[in-house]
Amino acid sequence: MEKEFLKTIMDNQKIIYKVCRMYRDSKEDQQDLYQEIVYQLWKSFSSFKNESKVSSWIYRIALNTSLAIYRKSKPNIEYYDEFPEQIHPSGEVIVSENEDLLFAALRFLNDFEKAIISLYLEDFNYQEIAEITGLTENNVGVRMNRIKNKLKNILN
Amino acid sequence: MELNNLKFIWQNIDGANKSEIELKRMTKVINHPTLKKIRIKMLIETISLSFFLFIYYDWFDGSNKPFYINVLLVSSLSLYILNDIIGYISTIRPIRGVSLKISIEKYYIRIKYLAVSSLIISFLYGLTIILYFSSVINFNKENYFILIGIIIILLFMTYLSYRIWNKWIESLKLHVKSFISDEAS
Lengths: 156, 185
Hints:
The structure holds two protein chains of two kinds. Chain A is an all-alpha fold. Chain A has helices at about 1-25, 25-45, 55-70, 95-105, 110-120, 125-135, 135-155. Chains A and B meet through helix 1, helix 2, helix 3, helix 4 and helix 5 of A and helix 1, helix 2, helix 5 and helix 6 of B.
């Protein structure tokens, strides 16, 4: 079972990376959250019976963990009056400017909005987003419209 | 930047390249950033308090203390150990639900109960220890000052503990509210 689990995570680990980067600002916090998510995925792997898509399961656990666990320190947030035109990456990993701009925009959303938009950006439809979040499709639609408008304002 | 562009960027992010060995390490509690510390704390407390329960009667004059004080001490220490174990089990598995909404709601309720029980039991535990060691003592002015000082410290520590729990509970409450407000719209 362990081998199967590791293969599943290896194939989908960029989902975990994206969720960590969206919910935590510092590299250290992202790393801690990454580890927490992998641990929770491992603990719930036995109950995952391929009834849903692997990506749905990973997103559900990853988002749930990000929202639920206690944050030790205050997030290291830089506040801007306006959306910055350029963000300079400070880490060792070279990331694209667009990627940085995307995560900078997502910082303006609350935790719950981040969960919904990440599923939308991954190309889940409203029905799937509703199943993962536990909301009705109608509610997902209403909230998505608000998030889209918010993002448009941030980015334009 | 258009929203469709955001989708394209999101789906093409490829920042994480953990090896299979790294991922395997992450599945063990011993390598976990917080659970490892919680488990060590729980083990140390359980072992040391169990040891204290075993020897206190002979080493700390249990026979000279009133019966009810002995009962209070054993009960509060046992409750503290039990709460420690329940707390560990509760925090190790935050996800218990088919959806984010159900899971967060359940976790919020669980953490709220755990916070209340932890605060009450810790306070009782501290109070019982003070009561035990201060019983059958002829108090003078200095003793009273020391006793008041210890009680103030206990109250302060309970308050600090309350603040930490409250911060966590408030953040979970906020998430639960986000789901409810979304449903209302």
